[in-house]
Amino acid sequence: MADVFKNFTGILDTTANATIFTVPVANVAATPPIPATTYVAKTFFIVHEAVTNPKTLVSAYHYDASEDQTIAFAAEVSAGVALNLFQNGVYVFEAGDQLIVNANIANNINWSVSLLEIKGQQ
Predict the structure, then answer these.
(1) Residue 7 · residue 111 · CB < 8 Å
(2) What does the domain layout of the chain look like in residue ranges?
(3) Read out DSSP for 7-53?
(4) Residue 5: what pLDDT?
(5) Whole-model pTM?
(6) Residues of the chain whose pLDDT is less than 50?
(7) Any bridge partners for residue 6, and if so which?
(8) How far apart are the C-alpha atoms of 80 and 55, rounded to whole Å?
(9) CATH class of the domain comprising 4-119
(10) Are 43 and 8 in contact (CB under 8 A)?
(11) How far from 96 is each of 18, 24, 38, 46, CA to CA, in Å?
């Protein structure tokens, strides 16, 4: 299978945790079969567009399903600012891993995640 680039986008319309994606878990017995999949995320842009609130605190979490652990990133974003939360590196998400995000104020933050989806052979 060919590797493909994917982009996930949205707006944080709640202060609750929002799951941006969960990497599929392989299941060769499924119809159609689900191959082993890895996501390699390069950018995770957050944009604060609401001028009514000068700053919004954004938290992102990489839940690692194989280790049952979470790595957290946090940033305070000013109105009119775009920020790449993954600016310090590339992040690898494997089967069952999740990218989760929340903000302390709803409807202020738009987000976009760009990644490479790598699927194993059947």
Answers:
(1) no
(2) 4-119
(3) EEEEE--SSS-EEEEEPPPPBTTSSS-B--EEEEEEEEEEEE--SSS
(4) 94
(5) 0.87
(6) none
(7) 115
(8) 10
(9) mainly beta
(10) no
(11) 16, 6, 10, 23
